[in-house]
Write a structure and sequence with these properties.
single chain; about 500 residues; alpha/beta; nine-stranded mixed β-sheet; two-stranded antiparallel sheet; 17 helices; 11 strands; globular
Length: about 500
């Protein structure tokens, strides 16, 4: 959620790119992301150095021996000098941050191209970005990507819209990932779920008084001062977070996002996770996802590991989440409401899989406005653990998420029902006016229907009826009065 001042500057930035000759949205967003990455590397190098000192660790600056690559050292150059410095020195530097190491960042940045066509556009873009107060805002490239696509009215095509950050934080809180666990998002986009999972772990291991929050709940100053073992940091930085996406621009933005948040060797790969080319591994302890659900997949390209006879993406993704988890692994994923009550054999079998091969712990129905202004589709969050079977399912009807549910999505309190959801879930999935627990047997008898409307009790207003004798007397009196009126009418004719 960008504030009005940032929105204004991003719009100004986009207009500059449009008039400057770079009007294709995805390449423009990619070039803007590179510039933001350059600025943030400079800002965060100082931040990471101070955090390392607080933890009592040594820190080696990524600009060591390359001070001329710092944003602060070249942002005041003339247009011609800046263009030469960025295209010949700074851009090659960010492409080779790992000095040719065999890591995924190097693989996907190898073919990255500096495409800003002229010095005047670069100078104007640098000036605008330098004014943007990015601070420690999580996933700022992702927010900018979302806003630009919103301006162009192209977001939401094929279900490609981003998950609100506060919904992501809620889902991560319900799963509660920890050090040593492998976390996966098989349709990661700009990396929002993976970044939130990393932030969640850091928050658990940061002295409570040090953590600060924005009014929308975004945490800051997460230095992880209680993580004292070097091998734990290595796990977090190199072997904990895995993402896949089929769009190369999203891969590069996600890679840069992860690096900006301290994960110097991100595991983000370009892959269609529903296709035959994806090698599924049952190794992940936590899965988070809100993949594009619209449409169908070419049957000839569907991965052979799928058992459900369907080409609908929402059902294939649901089986994919299950397939990726190790036994005991936990998922929080978003599905369209049709998955909850669809009557086809494929829909019923998908829900049966969750209920009979997993512990389906929660179905959280969200209001349709959550994904405005891109889509009014109704969605739900499913929380489940792979292995065993379900005894009871906790249904929660979210009525508010802290923002207006219209096209504007104005900030209200940034929380809505989310604190109540988290509290009740962690307290043993307690029941209330908005939540109920239903036994597996009842759900099975209803063709595994997972819509809360099927099970919640209808509310009836209590009405006090008179005794039968009084009712009879009242009717007799009414009949007598009607008779008198009829006699009067006859006398008038």
């Amino acid at each position: 959620m960008l504030d009005p001042e940032m929105k204004s500057k991003i719009k100004k930035l986009w207009n500059a790119f449009w008039s400057g000759g770079l009007s294709n949205p995805l390449p423009a967003i990619e070039q803007i992301s590179y510039l933001i990455f350059m600025k943030r590397l400079d800002d965060l190098d100082t931040h990471h150095k101070m955090a390392a000192q607080t933890r009592g660790q040594k820190y080696k600056s990524i600009f060591e021996g390359r001070e001329n690559c710092r944003w602060s050292n070249w942002k005041h150059l003339s247009a011609e000098d800046m263009f030469k410095q960025v295209s010949d020195v700074v851009f090659p530097f960010i492409k080779k941050l790992h000095n040719g190491a065999d890591v995924l960042y190097s693989k996907y940045m190898k073919d990255a191209t500096f495409m800003i066509p002229k010095p005047s556009l670069l100078q104007e873009a640098v000036s605008i970005i330098d004014e943007i107060k990015i601070g420690e805002k999580i996933d700022v490239q992702g927010d900018i990507y979302e806003h630009l696509l919103g301006e162009l009215k192209t977001a939401g095509k094929n279900g490609q819209f981003r998950t609100p950050r506060h919904i992501i934080r809620m889902m991560v809180e319900l799963v509660d990932p920890d050090i040593g666990q492998k976390v996966c998002d098989p349709a990661c986009g700009t990396g929002g779920f993976l970044i939130a999972a990393y932030q969640h772990i850091l928050r658990k291991y940061t002295t409570k008084d040090m953590v600060k929050f924005d009014e929308d709940g975004t945490p800051h100053n997460l230095i992880g001062d209680k993580i004292v073992k070097k091998e734990h940091w290595n796990l977090l930085w190199k072997e904990s977070f895995y993402g896949f996406d089929f769009e190369i621009t999203m891969i590069r933005i996600a890679l840069m996002n992860m690096i900006l948040h301290g994960i110097m060797e991100p595991n983000i790969e370009q892959m269609d996770t529903l296709s035959k080319g994806f090698k599924q591994k049952l190794i992940y302890d936590a899965v988070f996802a809100n993949p594009p659900f619209a449409g169908y997949v070419d049957k000839s390209d569907i991965n052979d590991s799928f058992n459900h006879d369907t080409t609908k993406t929402e059902l294939l993704f649901l089986e994919l989440f299950y397939n990726l988890l190790s036994v005991g692994g936990k998922a929080a994923v978003i599905v369209p409401n049709g998955v909850l009550f669809g009557s086809s054999n494929a829909h019923i079998k998908a829900r049966q899989l969750l209920l009979e091969n997993c512990d389906l712990q929660a179905v959280i129905s969200m209001p349709s406005g959550v994904f405005q202004p891109y889509s009014g589709v109704g969605t739900a969050v499913l929380v489940f653990v792979k292995g065993g079977s379900t005894e009871k399912v906790w249904f929660y009807e979210m009525k508010a998420d802290g923002y207006s549910l219209d096209q504007k999505r104005d900030f209200l309190d940034g929380k809505g029902d989310i604190p109540d959801i988290i509290q009740k879930f962690k307290a043993g999935r307690t029941e209330s006016d908005q939540s109920i627990l239903m036994p597996f047997e009842t759900i099975r008898e209803n063709e595994y229907n997972l819509s809360i409307s099927r099970y919640k009790k209808a509310e009836h207003d209590e009405f006090q009826y008179d005794e039968p004798e009084i009712l009879i007397d009242n009717i007799s009196q009414l009949e007598e009065e009607i008779g008198k009126e009829l006699q009067a009418l006859k006398a008038m004719i």
